[in-house]
């Protein structure tokens, strides 16, 4: 998925909600980059079943804080109350760090703060470890990552987002990073209670090359792309929220008035995929599932073609904003034109529910964004497919001493603290008075907070997916309840939760399909072109890749659920 694409989430959208929502809330983005790997041996494939159970940490739920809305059907936990600083709990009663130095390389979007800033000092003092950050430009991180992992100068900790796990990166992860199993497998994790409270699914995703190597950033497995709409305009005009593709088309035609500079929507391809029950494009392994005893890839299905055809009809009917037709929406922020009412519906990552609300709260008090429930194309319940429960990982250098590894785990045990704790506030907000203030139970970052407290410590490890917006509690409630309703109709495909490294010779097989999809829905190519591309995909290695996945399935069994 192209960064900042209007039809799907941006690569940095997991950081978009900088109020009290964990970075994990929006994890698992529909990016079409897949895992690459070497051509043979244990570096390809996965670890699951009995082998995984021997390696995975024990799960011990945290009881430090009770959420207002518990997790259900794979949802995040939710908090809808005001923040009470005096009532914050302590989840790390004593420093576990032993005072050593740990270097961390991590992607960073924006301008990194000065090295010796008040936030870094406060966090290091809280943890008992001197963390030295080697922040790298997130937009070109894949290049830096490849160069560093190919060298002999690897930092103590390296953060690797799932979308950067292409080419030789997965193979390098197995070759360069430590096995954390001796410190975390089974009951050993109980020494780090906040890590023990990370869901098992997220740890399953942290297995690389048969070893527990990653510290995960957990996320909900419920699909993260929400069809957002202008609820205020819907109410004013008397529009009903559509519950089928036909209803959506009828509404789109009614709402569009090109002369008045109003169109119904942007590119709705990702919503179409959900409406027609298309297997996930979130990661290539999720695009496979067993149908009548045969493994089928998402691009081979009738549902895939039907979703593209319906999206094409929206463009052809003239109900899609011209920016999306021209492709401008791939580079532009849709927020201003959505706020201006130039279009009423668009699909994007769930984090925008809060961020759009916060943007417009002062200058446009009538503005109200809300999320439509995903619908089945025929008006019935949709069939949704789970996204993976973790997509960003921190790894420890294979050459690190036990002392360094334990210091890294001390860092992670603090950064994985749950919402409602002192450690969570320190990790996500910094120092009260310096980096944030609290008024009427709502924390607000200061100018210094917006400089210092950015995507640093949150990248090492995070708590279970959490949604909390004390400034807009109705949004937090809406987000969690949306996930719960959608989670009830979300299925787990055969390879859900498995960290699979495809053989390199097949890694790029389906890379051109996203562009082809966009050409088809805009009328530049035809459905027949997709069918031909699928035929080519099969002959160029797709059928052999199917056999390769078949072997994994036979050896490991399908995901549960």
UniProtKB/TrEMBL annotation:
What lineage, starting at the top, does this entry show? Bacteria, Bacillati, Actinomycetota, Actinomycetes, Kitasatosporales
User: What's the protein called, per UniProt?
Assistant: Extracellular solute-binding protein
Stated family: Belongs to the bacterial solute-binding protein 1 family.
Question: What UniProt keywords apply to this chain's record, in alphabetical order?
Answer: Signal, Transport
> Could you tell me where this protein is found in the cell?
Cell envelope
Q: Does the keyword Signal apply?
A: yes
Q: Which PROSITE patterns match?
A: TAT
Native source organism of the sequence: Streptomyces ardesiacus
Check the record and name the InterPro entries matching this protein: Bact_solute-bd_prot1, SBP, TAT_signal, TAT_signal_bac_arc
Q: Which SUPFAM superfamilies match?
A: Periplasmic binding protein-like II
Q: Which PANTHER family does this one have?
A: ARABINOSE-BINDING PROTEIN-RELATED (PTHR43649), SN-GLYCEROL-3-PHOSPHATE-BINDING PERIPLASMIC PROTEIN UGPB (PTHR43649:SF31)
Do the record's keywords include Zinc? no
């Amino acid at each position: 998925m192209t960064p900042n694409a209007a039809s799907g989430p941006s690569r940095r959208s997991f950081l978009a909600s900088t109020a009290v929502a964990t970075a994990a809330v929006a994890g698992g983005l529909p990016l079409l980059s897949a895992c690459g790997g070497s051509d043979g041996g244990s570096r390809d494939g996965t670890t699951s079943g009995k082998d995984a159970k021997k390696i995975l940490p024990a799960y011990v739920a945290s009881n430090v804080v009770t959420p207002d809305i518990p997790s259900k059907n794979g949802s995040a936990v939710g908090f809808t109350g005001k923040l009470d600083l005096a009532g914050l709990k302590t989840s790390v009663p004593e420093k576990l760090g032993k005072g050593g130095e740990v270097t961390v390389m991590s992607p960073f979007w924006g301008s990194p703060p000065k090295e010796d800033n008040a936030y870094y000092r406060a966090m290091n003092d809280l943890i008992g470890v001197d963390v030295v950050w080697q922040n790298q430009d997130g937009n070109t991180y894949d290049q830096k990552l490849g160069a560093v992992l190919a060298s002999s100068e690897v930092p103590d900790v390296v953060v690797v987002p799932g979308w950067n796990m292409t080419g030789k990166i997965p193979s390098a992860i197995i070759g360069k990073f430590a096995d954390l199993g001796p410190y975390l497998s089974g009951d050993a994790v109980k020494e780090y209670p906040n890590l023990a409270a990370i869901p098992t699914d997220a740890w399953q995703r942290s297995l690389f090359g048969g070893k527990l190597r990653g510290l995960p950033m957990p996320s909900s497995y419920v699909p993260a792309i929400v069809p957002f709409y202008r609820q205020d305009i819907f109410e004013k005009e008397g529009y009903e929220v559509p519950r089928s593709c036909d209803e959506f088309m009828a509404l789109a035609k009614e709402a569009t008035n090109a002369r008045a500079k109003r169109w119904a929507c942007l590119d709705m391809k990702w919503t179409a995929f959900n409406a027609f029950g298309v297997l996930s494009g979130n990661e290539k392994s999720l695009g496979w599932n067993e149908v009548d005893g045969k493994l089928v890839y998402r691009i081979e299905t009738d549902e895939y073609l039907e979703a593209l055809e319906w999206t094409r009809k929206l463009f052809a009917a003239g109900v899609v904003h011209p920016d999306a037709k021209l492709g401008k929406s791939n580079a532009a922020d849709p927020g201003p034109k959505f706020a201006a009412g130039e279009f009423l519906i668009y699909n994007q990552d769930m984090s925008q529910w809060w961020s759009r609300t916060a943007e417009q709260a002062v200058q446009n008090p009538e503005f109200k964004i809300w999320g439509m429930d995903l619908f089945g194309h025929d008006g019935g319940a949709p069939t949704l497919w789970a996204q993976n429960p973790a997509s960003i990982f921190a790894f420890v250098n294979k050459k690190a001493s036990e002392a360094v590894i334990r210091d890294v785990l001390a860092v992670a045990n603090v950064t994985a603290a749950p919402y409602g704790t002192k450690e969570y506030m320190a990790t996500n907000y910094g120092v009260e008075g310096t980096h944030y203030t609290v008024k009427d139970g709502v924390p607000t970052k200061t100018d210094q907070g917006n400089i210092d407290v950015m995507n640093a410590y949150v990248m090492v490890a995070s708590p279970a997916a959490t949604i909390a917006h004390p400034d807009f509690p109705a949004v937090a409630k809406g987000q969690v309840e949306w996930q719960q309703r959608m989670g009830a109709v979300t299925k787990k495909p055969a390879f859900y939760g498995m960290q699979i490294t495809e053989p390199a010779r097949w890694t790029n097989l389906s890379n051109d399909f996203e562009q082809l999809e966009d050409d088809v829905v805009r009328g530049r190519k035809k459905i027949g072109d997709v069918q031909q591309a699928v035929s080519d995909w099969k002959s160029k290695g797709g059928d052999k890749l199917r056999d390769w996945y078949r072997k994994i399935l036979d050896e490991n069994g399908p995901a549960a659920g």
